[in-house]
Amino acid sequence: AQTVTQSQPEMSVQEAETVTLSCTYDTSESDYYLFWYKQPPSRQMILVIRQEAYKQQNATENRFSVNFQKAAKSFSLKISDSQLGDAAMYFCAYFNAGGTSYGKLTFGQGTILTVHP
Amino acid sequence: DARVTQTPRHKVTEMGQEVTMRCQPILGHNTVFWYRQTMMQGLELLAYFRNRAPLDDSGMPKDRFSAEMPDATLATLKIQPSEPRDSAVYFCASGLVWGSLKHGELFFGEGSRLTVL
Fold first, then answer.
1. Coil, strand or helix at A85
2. Which pLDDT band, with edges at 50, 70 and 90, does B102 fall under?
3. B59/B67 Cα distance (integer angstroms)
Protein backbone atom coordinates (compact mmCIF):
# COMPACT_ATOMS: atom_id res chain seq x y z
CA ALA A 1 0.00 0.00 0.00
CA GLN A 2 1.11 3.50 -0.70
CA THR A 3 2.02 5.70 2.23
CA VAL A 4 2.70 9.41 2.44
CA THR A 5 4.78 10.84 5.27
CA GLN A 6 5.08 14.45 6.33
CA SER A 7 7.67 14.51 9.08
CA GLN A 8 7.15 18.14 10.12
CA PRO A 9 3.97 18.56 12.19
CA GLU A 10 4.58 22.30 12.39
CA MET A 11 6.69 24.89 10.60
CA SER A 12 7.00 28.63 10.89
CA VAL A 13 8.37 31.34 8.65
CA GLN A 14 8.76 35.10 8.67
CA GLU A 15 6.72 37.05 6.19
CA ALA A 16 8.61 37.50 2.89
CA GLU A 17 10.97 34.63 3.70
CA THR A 18 11.13 31.18 2.10
CA VAL A 19 10.04 27.93 3.70
CA THR A 20 10.22 24.32 2.55
CA LEU A 21 7.78 21.63 3.61
CA SER A 22 8.88 18.01 3.34
CA CYS A 23 7.05 14.98 2.04
CA THR A 24 8.14 11.44 1.30
CA TYR A 25 6.11 8.61 -0.11
CA ASP A 26 6.42 4.92 -0.58
CA THR A 27 5.21 3.15 -3.69
CA SER A 28 6.11 0.38 -6.09
CA GLU A 29 4.09 1.94 -8.89
CA SER A 30 5.60 3.90 -11.75
CA ASP A 31 2.51 5.84 -12.76
CA TYR A 32 1.33 8.35 -10.21
CA TYR A 33 0.74 12.00 -9.44
CA LEU A 34 1.68 14.07 -6.43
CA PHE A 35 -0.15 17.06 -5.02
CA TRP A 36 0.08 19.67 -2.34
CA TYR A 37 -3.18 20.88 -0.86
CA LYS A 38 -3.70 23.82 1.46
CA GLN A 39 -6.33 23.85 4.19
CA PRO A 40 -6.89 27.24 5.87
CA PRO A 41 -8.93 27.55 9.08
CA SER A 42 -12.09 27.63 6.97
CA ARG A 43 -11.50 23.87 6.35
CA GLN A 44 -11.69 24.37 2.62
CA MET A 45 -9.23 22.15 0.71
CA ILE A 46 -7.36 24.08 -1.98
CA LEU A 47 -5.08 22.55 -4.58
CA VAL A 48 -1.72 24.31 -4.53
CA ILE A 49 0.35 22.39 -7.06
CA ARG A 50 0.58 19.05 -8.85
CA GLN A 51 3.41 16.98 -10.28
CA GLU A 52 3.19 14.14 -12.76
CA ALA A 53 5.68 11.39 -11.92
CA TYR A 54 6.71 10.97 -15.55
CA LYS A 55 7.82 14.59 -15.78
CA GLN A 56 11.36 15.39 -14.69
CA GLN A 57 10.78 19.11 -14.59
CA ASN A 58 9.68 20.43 -11.22
CA ALA A 59 6.26 22.06 -11.18
CA THR A 60 5.92 25.74 -10.28
CA GLU A 61 2.89 27.92 -9.57
CA ASN A 62 3.81 31.52 -8.89
CA ARG A 63 5.44 31.55 -5.44
CA PHE A 64 5.04 27.81 -5.00
CA SER A 65 7.44 25.25 -6.41
CA VAL A 66 8.30 21.65 -5.75
CA ASN A 67 11.50 19.66 -5.57
CA PHE A 68 10.55 16.26 -6.95
CA GLN A 69 13.18 13.58 -6.39
CA LYS A 70 11.67 10.45 -7.88
CA ALA A 71 14.46 8.04 -6.95
CA ALA A 72 14.41 9.25 -3.38
CA LYS A 73 10.58 9.35 -3.36
CA SER A 74 10.67 12.87 -2.06
CA PHE A 75 8.33 15.73 -2.93
CA SER A 76 8.95 18.96 -1.03
CA LEU A 77 7.07 22.22 -1.38
CA LYS A 78 8.88 25.55 -1.39
CA ILE A 79 6.97 28.72 -0.66
CA SER A 80 8.83 31.86 -1.61
CA ASP A 81 8.07 35.36 -0.39
CA SER A 82 5.74 33.96 2.27
CA GLN A 83 2.57 35.90 2.94
CA LEU A 84 0.26 35.96 5.93
CA GLY A 85 -2.39 34.30 3.80
CA ASP A 86 -0.15 31.28 3.35
CA ALA A 87 -0.75 30.27 6.95
CA ALA A 88 -2.64 26.99 6.84
CA MET A 89 -2.35 23.22 7.12
CA TYR A 90 -0.56 21.78 4.09
CA PHE A 91 -1.15 18.24 2.92
CA CYS A 92 0.95 16.20 0.56
CA ALA A 93 -1.04 13.66 -1.46
CA TYR A 94 -0.30 10.72 -3.72
CA PHE A 95 -2.59 9.66 -6.53
CA ASN A 96 -2.45 6.16 -8.03
CA ALA A 97 -2.65 6.49 -11.82
CA GLY A 98 -2.28 2.78 -12.38
CA GLY A 99 -2.09 -0.60 -10.74
CA THR A 100 -4.56 -2.26 -8.44
CA SER A 101 -5.26 0.91 -6.48
CA TYR A 102 -5.91 3.05 -9.54
CA GLY A 103 -7.69 6.26 -8.67
CA LYS A 104 -6.85 6.23 -4.98
CA LEU A 105 -5.72 9.51 -3.42
CA THR A 106 -3.76 9.17 -0.17
CA PHE A 107 -2.83 12.09 2.07
CA GLY A 108 0.00 12.67 4.50
CA GLN A 109 -0.59 13.76 8.07
CA GLY A 110 -0.27 17.45 7.31
CA THR A 111 2.06 20.29 8.31
CA ILE A 112 0.77 23.37 10.07
CA LEU A 113 2.47 26.46 8.66
CA THR A 114 2.58 29.65 10.71
CA VAL A 115 3.62 32.92 9.07
CA HIS A 116 4.96 35.62 11.38
CA PRO A 117 4.61 39.27 10.40
CA ASP B 1 -20.60 27.58 -9.56
CA ALA B 2 -20.27 23.79 -9.19
CA ARG B 3 -19.42 22.51 -5.77
CA VAL B 4 -19.63 19.45 -3.57
CA THR B 5 -22.37 19.76 -1.00
CA GLN B 6 -22.23 17.99 2.34
CA THR B 7 -24.85 17.76 5.03
CA PRO B 8 -25.01 18.25 7.92
CA ARG B 9 -22.25 20.81 8.54
CA HIS B 10 -22.30 20.02 12.22
CA LYS B 11 -23.73 17.12 14.16
CA VAL B 12 -23.69 16.45 17.87
CA THR B 13 -25.04 13.12 18.97
CA GLU B 14 -24.86 10.67 21.81
CA MET B 15 -22.92 7.46 21.81
CA GLY B 16 -24.88 4.60 20.31
CA GLN B 17 -26.94 6.75 17.97
CA GLU B 18 -26.98 6.32 14.20
CA VAL B 19 -25.37 9.08 12.15
CA THR B 20 -25.82 9.57 8.43
CA MET B 21 -23.77 12.05 6.45
CA ARG B 22 -24.69 12.95 2.90
CA CYS B 23 -22.74 14.22 -0.04
CA GLN B 24 -23.84 15.57 -3.39
CA PRO B 25 -20.90 15.33 -5.80
CA ILE B 26 -20.43 17.66 -8.72
CA LEU B 27 -22.54 16.65 -11.69
CA GLY B 28 -20.50 14.64 -14.16
CA HIS B 29 -17.82 13.57 -11.73
CA ASN B 30 -17.28 9.82 -11.73
CA THR B 31 -15.27 9.37 -8.53
CA VAL B 32 -16.29 10.10 -4.95
CA PHE B 33 -14.09 9.88 -1.88
CA TRP B 34 -14.86 9.90 1.84
CA TYR B 35 -12.12 11.11 4.18
CA ARG B 36 -11.99 11.53 7.94
CA GLN B 37 -9.82 14.23 9.47
CA THR B 38 -8.56 14.16 13.04
CA MET B 39 -5.66 15.92 14.69
CA MET B 40 -3.93 12.64 15.42
CA GLN B 41 -4.42 10.82 12.11
CA GLY B 42 -4.63 13.61 9.60
CA LEU B 43 -6.75 12.84 6.53
CA GLU B 44 -7.66 9.17 6.39
CA LEU B 45 -9.26 7.67 3.32
CA LEU B 46 -12.34 5.75 4.38
CA ALA B 47 -13.79 4.71 1.02
CA TYR B 48 -14.02 5.70 -2.59
CA PHE B 49 -16.34 4.98 -5.49
CA ARG B 50 -15.99 4.99 -9.25
CA ASN B 51 -19.17 5.23 -11.28
CA ARG B 52 -21.05 4.47 -8.06
CA ALA B 53 -19.21 1.18 -7.49
CA PRO B 54 -17.15 0.88 -4.31
CA LEU B 55 -13.48 0.41 -5.14
CA ASP B 56 -11.85 0.43 -1.76
CA ASP B 57 -13.36 0.71 1.70
CA SER B 58 -10.46 -0.84 3.59
CA GLY B 59 -10.00 2.31 5.64
CA MET B 60 -13.42 1.99 7.16
CA PRO B 61 -14.31 0.09 10.36
CA LYS B 62 -16.62 -2.46 8.80
CA ASP B 63 -18.57 -3.28 11.92
CA ARG B 64 -20.05 0.18 12.30
CA PHE B 65 -19.40 2.17 9.13
CA SER B 66 -21.04 1.80 5.75
CA ALA B 67 -20.77 3.87 2.59
CA GLU B 68 -23.09 3.79 -0.39
CA MET B 69 -23.98 5.64 -3.56
CA PRO B 70 -27.67 5.03 -4.14
CA ASP B 71 -27.46 7.19 -7.26
CA ALA B 72 -24.99 9.41 -9.08
CA THR B 73 -26.11 12.49 -7.18
CA LEU B 74 -25.84 11.13 -3.65
CA ALA B 75 -23.19 9.44 -1.54
CA THR B 76 -23.86 8.48 2.06
CA LEU B 77 -21.67 7.56 5.01
CA LYS B 78 -23.41 5.92 7.91
CA ILE B 79 -22.15 5.14 11.39
CA GLN B 80 -24.18 2.77 13.54
CA PRO B 81 -23.68 2.75 16.46
CA SER B 82 -21.57 5.86 16.85
CA GLU B 83 -18.79 6.09 19.44
CA PRO B 84 -16.87 9.05 20.90
CA ARG B 85 -13.75 8.06 18.92
CA ASP B 86 -15.72 8.72 15.73
CA SER B 87 -15.66 12.44 16.51
CA ALA B 88 -13.94 14.08 13.56
CA VAL B 89 -14.53 16.10 10.44
CA TYR B 90 -15.72 13.98 7.54
CA PHE B 91 -14.97 15.20 4.04
CA CYS B 92 -16.48 14.16 0.78
CA ALA B 93 -14.63 14.91 -2.45
CA SER B 94 -15.44 14.29 -6.07
CA GLY B 95 -13.43 14.33 -9.27
CA LEU B 96 -13.39 13.26 -12.86
CA VAL B 97 -10.89 10.47 -13.06
CA TRP B 98 -10.14 9.09 -16.49
CA GLY B 99 -6.58 7.89 -16.87
CA SER B 100 -5.52 10.57 -14.42
CA LEU B 101 -7.12 13.02 -12.09
CA LYS B 102 -8.41 15.50 -14.61
CA HIS B 103 -6.60 18.78 -14.14
CA GLY B 104 -5.15 17.33 -10.95
CA GLU B 105 -7.95 18.40 -8.72
CA LEU B 106 -10.47 16.91 -6.43
CA PHE B 107 -13.30 19.14 -5.32
CA PHE B 108 -13.91 18.93 -1.61
CA GLY B 109 -17.04 19.63 0.33
CA GLU B 110 -16.88 21.82 3.41
CA GLY B 111 -16.93 18.82 5.70
CA SER B 112 -19.27 17.52 8.36
CA ARG B 113 -18.05 18.03 11.90
CA LEU B 114 -19.26 15.15 14.03
CA THR B 115 -19.16 15.15 17.81
CA VAL B 116 -20.17 12.00 19.63
CA LEU B 117 -20.71 12.48 23.35
1. helix
2. low
3. 11
User: B34 and chain A: CB distance < 8 Å anywhere?
Assistant: no
Residue B108's nearest CA partner among B22, B52, B19, B26 is B26
pLDDT for the residue B103: 47
A109 and B42: CB-CB below 8 Å? yes
Per the prediction, chain A carries an average pLDDT of 92
B9 has a chain A CB within 8 A of its CB: no
Other Cβ atoms within 10 Å of B105 Cβ, number:
16
* Rg of chain A, C-alpha, whole Å: 14
Range of the domain at A69: 3-116
CA-based nearest residue in chain B for residue A97:
B100
Superfamily of domain B5-112: Immunoglobulins (2.60.40.10)
The reply to whether A47 touches chain B by the CB within 8 Å rule is: yes
Query: Tens of pLDDT along A55-106?
Result: 889 999 999 999 999 999 999 999 999 999 999 999 999 988 777 777 788 9
Domains: count for chain A: 1
* Sequence ranges of the domains in chain B: 5-112
